[in-house]
Amino acid sequence: xxxxxxxxxxxxxxxxxxxxxxxxxxxxxxxxxxxxxxxxxxxxxxxxxxxxxxxxxxxxxxxxxxxxxxxxxxxxxxxxxxxxxxxxxxxxxxxxxxxxxxxxxxxxxxxxxxxxxxxxxxxxxxxxxxxxxxxxxxxxxxxxxxxxxxxxxxxxxxxxxxxxxxxxxxxxxxxxxxxxxxxxxxxxxxxxxxxxxxxxxxxxxxxxxxxxxxxxxxxxxxxxxxxxxxxxxxxxxxxxxxxxxxxxxxxxxxxxxxxxxxxxxxxxxxxxxxxxxxxxxxxxxxxxxxxxxxxxxxxxxxxxxxxxxxxxxxxxxxxxxxxxxxxxxxxxxxxxxxxxxxxxxxxxxxxxxxxxxxxxxxxxxxxxxxxxxxxxxxxxxxxxxxxxxxxxxxxxxxxxxxxxxxxxxxxxxxxxxxxxxxxxxxxxxxxxxxxxxxxxxxxxxxxxxxxxxxxxxxxxxxxxxxxxxxxxxxxxxxxxxxxxxxxxxxxxxxx
Length: 495
Description:
Blueprint: H1 7-18, H2 28-41, E1 83-84, H3 85-102, H4 110-127, E2 134-138, H5 141-145, E3 160-163, H6 170-186, H7 192-211, H8 216-219, H9 221-224, H10 235-249, H11 252-261, H12 280-292, H13 300-313, E4 324-325, E5 331-332, H14 339-358, E6 363-365, E7 368-370, H15 372-387, H16 411-414, H17 431-435, H18 466-469, H19 473-488
Antiparallel strand pairs: 1-2, 2-3, 4-5, 6-7
């Protein structure tokens, strides 16, 4: 019987075979510029004079008015015209984290990235202006999803939904607190007054989330489910919010809150999950930086959880049933819109690799271990797959490369722009554009779509298959940090 390779050698072999050689080095800086530009296509409200995607126009200018509040602005999360606060806050948190960790690699795009964060946080400040209230959604999602119309034309109800002490939403409030706290770090040097305002609001929103505990999908089930229903519970968002408030404020009370609630709020659960619903892996990686820097050994259990998370993702080591790799090398998790998992998990691998590098650390995985370089290679492989190093030779970023999705599931992109078609296109009049095999007339530059949703690396490029063809803000948000890093470090050197 032939001898079996040692686990460490097996890891090296599988990593090497999963790396598909590219025909040419990717232009990560160009991809970064495009990925930030995408957010301009998702803007709601009064657009600024420097708007670059000029096929978009003003929209939803009276959001909140019927309820006596100003809820204009913010982002549409995907290809529809609803403003969902839960994924918007997560998007803002991940954009901010990208800038905090990798802003020095963004070069001239750092200014645009900060603008993209501020478009979200300006809205989140409006949504939290009333004490003990967080406005969490604008728009009737069921009515909106029955139409195919431009945001500039929409005539579906702009119903406002909120959480308050009688209708708690610790999940969405905790994520909003995290977003405000993370963004306060981004603006600390360039706009100290705005930074203080963000941090003060984060503190009050977190207090509301913690004092009035409950899931918003219970309080607002008929409005938010099944779209952004909280399947994972609100406990992780409370830890997540506390972790960001500790990082932003350095107040001992948040460190103690994390330690006191680690078991109560199930910090070690579902360690290989990270996204708008489940923050566990992100919590463990974020807090591990403090442990690795020798500042907080009190929270060493989070470092152990982060190590387990990393091991669950590594080809050749992972035996987790939820983690697979396609024949072309794409990280794959069951469920729709797989690229949201690819970008968010890859971001955590890259962030953790940097924390380990600064501490001269590694990841123990059973009888073997992984170095920071190996983590970066796995993350880079996923980025390269998105940009075109895959069996189809297709970039999953719109506008990048010679071949990319042309029929994305996005109303504004697929319908004639207001400048090209002045007349209103009604709710059902847009159906013919939705069903058309023609490419979208407006290029939503930088949008990354859901991509292959099965293990075969297949992609149909068809609007009706929304799980594969729809872009989202939370796919792109962690990609900012990844692209920034690889634009500065296109070649990965050994540790």
